[in-house]
Design goal:
heterodimer; A: 170 residues; alpha/beta; five-stranded mixed β-sheet; two-stranded parallel sheet; B: 375 residues; mainly alpha; three-stranded antiparallel β-sheet; 15 helices
């Protein structure tokens, strides 16, 4: 639904704009849920504001995607008592992907951050235990990056297989 | 000549023992490995190691047309594959603005609730054998057989159903299928009472489960727990009410909660949920409208560029698919928020300080499926 048809429904967005102003962009309010992008420098402040002041206490989801030029982190936070949610994006550079951890705010994000590290190689500063979680410890590379090329190791039980070469298309 | 020191003054050197539980262990419900550090029988540290079943299912989606991916979702949480099929299809429907016909919405609810009962019955059986009540396992699987027969009648499969389609369902229900489901409802309710007499009010069972593995309400929220694990801690949160999907906002059912936060509360919530599922099933066939069951979507589906977030309440909790498209025939990114993965994060905290036999019970009460944890 566009802004014109529902001009009054803004949820907590005015609060955010007052506090963070220029640092947030692309703000939308859809179905009781805000979608927005925050800049990396204030990410941790923003997350603790969301948890403590907006009561978005439930860490529903944390993941990332690769656009080719940059990585984008996706946080989804939910407020069970208020009934609203937030889908938050934060862009980070591919060259030096380092972000502050959110596992100090929500212990539930501990494993999510390990998974994002495992698949994308994004490092979470301050994470208590940042190591691979789903892949073997000696795996090379980060498979969910778009430029990931798997190399056959010759060992069927261990190491990447050249799945990209047989990738099937309709 | 030296004599041995008296017993009181001799220093006894002890050291912690490291014990690998799994990945091949019946009570880890799959290929979960727990590295336990023990002091006698007490757990000092617990490090869950996952990934033994990792297949890169999220990455597979990036190379496949939307429709071809549905069978992959069966292999996530194989005890409730319909919920996975559904959450995926719903994500595509939201991304591509596809409406689902009303009849398909109701039939989907019936299928999902039947699958929820089947999944909770597996929990009941395996949890019973975890605490030593092996009889329950046989009863639970006898009941589950009826559900699987019903699902087989409509989908042709007993475990990996692959029965949701983008825009509805592939076929209508067979003739008299609704009668079979209603007969099952009448059959199921007394069986649940029987189970209460057999297990819920069993003294040994209560001692093993009450006050064990307590998660407070605040902890449950900050760990991102969901499903019966969250509701067992007294938080009334259910996606079917929080963000109603399909026909759930036309159906009357309760969100079951328990305030204890312990293993017993989580068990109770699941038993109550089966009763509510039976209630929902009855209403579905009272209200089932006539009409088409599938919206035509063309041969090769293209979704507009954008993102979609679909969440459903699977038997294990909040199951979400996050999908991004650049306007092509396959998604550029698919992320699965697996409830078992999130619920398992709390295990380390719960296990530390308990006895090793309780770790088995706590793990059983979280009701994880490793296909979904590892993806």
């Amino acid at each position: 639904m566009s802004e014109e048809t529902r001009p009054t429904e803004q949820g907590y967005i005015p609060l955010l704009q007052e506090r963070f102003g220029e640092l947030i962009s692309g703000v939308e309010w859809v179905d009781n849920e805000a979608r927005l992008t925050v800049s990396l420098d204030k990410l941790h402040d923003f997350l603790s504001f969301a948890r403590d002041d907006l009561l978005l206490k439930f860490p529903a989801d944390l993941t990332a995607f690769d656009t080719g030029e940059q990585f984008v982190l996706v946080y989804r936070l939910v407020s069970i008592e208020k009934g609203y949610a937030m889908l938050l994006h934060c862009s980070i550079s591919r060259e030096d992907p380092v972000v502050p951890t959110a596992s100090d705010l929500w212990p539930g994000f501990n494993w999510h951050e390990r998974e994002v590290f495992d698949m994308f190689g994004i490092r979470f500063e301050g994470h208590p235990d940042l190591r691979r979680i789903l892949l073997p410890d000696d795996w090379e590379g980060f498979p969910f990056r778009k430029d990931y090329v798997s190399v056959p190791s010759g060992d069927p039980l261990h190491g990447p297989q050249p799945v990209d070469e047989v990738g099937w298309k309709p | 000549m030296t004599t041995a020191p008296a017993l009181e003054t001799r220093e006894i050197i002890t050291q912690g023992m490291m014990l690998n539980m799994g990945p091949q262990h019946p009570s880890t419900h799959g290929v979960l490995r727990l590295i336990l550090t023990l002091d006698g029988e007490e757990v000092v540290d617990c490090d869950p190691v996952i990934g033994y079943l990792h297949r890169g299912i999220e990455k597979f989606a990036e190379r496949r047309p939307y429709r071809h991916y549905i069978p992959f979702t069966d292999r996530l949480d194989y005890l409730c594959s319909l919920a996975n099929n559904h959450s995926y299809c719903q994500a595509v429907e939201r991304l591509a603005w596809i409406e689902v016909p009303e009849r398909a919405q109701y039939l989907r609810v019936a299928l999902l609730e039947l699958n929820r009962i089947a999944s909770h019955l597996v929990f009941l059986g395996t949890f019973g054998s975890d605490v030593g009540a092996t009889t329950v396992f046989l009863y639970a699987f006898r009941e589950r057989e009826h559900v699987l027969d019903l699902l087989e009648e409509i989908t042709g499969a007993r475990l990996t159903y692959n029965w949701m389609r983008i825009g509805g369902l592939p076929a209508d229900m067979p003739e008299n299928w609704d009668k079979g489901v209603l007969e099952f409802c009448d059959y199921m309710e007394p069986r649940l009472d029987e189970n209460d007499r057999l297990l819920t009010n069993n003294r040994i069972f209560r001692v093993r489960t009450e006050g064990v593995g307590v998660v407070s309400a605040d902890e449950a929220v900050s760990y991102g727990l969901s499903g019966p694990t969250l509701r067992g801690s007294g938080i009334r949160h259910d996606i079917r009410k929080f963000r109603p999907y399909e026909a759930y906002d036309h159906l009357d059912f309760q969100v079951c909660t328990e305030s204890g936060g312990d293993v017993f509360s989580r068990y109770r919530v699941r038993i109550q949920e089966m009763r509510e599922s039976v209630k929902v099933l009855r209403q579905v066939f009272e209200k089932l409208p006539e009409g088409p069951i599938l919206t035509k979507t063309g041969k090769l589906l293209k979704a507009p560029a954008g993102e979609a977030y679909s969440q459903v309440e699977s038997p294990r909790g909040e199951l979400s698919f996050y999908m991004r498209s650049d306007g092509g025939t396959d998604p550029t990114r698919l992320h699965i928020r697996a409830p078992s993965f999130c619920n398992l994060t709390v295990l380390r905290k719960l296990a530390i300080g308990t006895k090793i036999a309780d770790v088995v019970v706590i793990l059983g009460s979280l009701d994880i499926v490793l296909g979904e944890v590892d993806r």
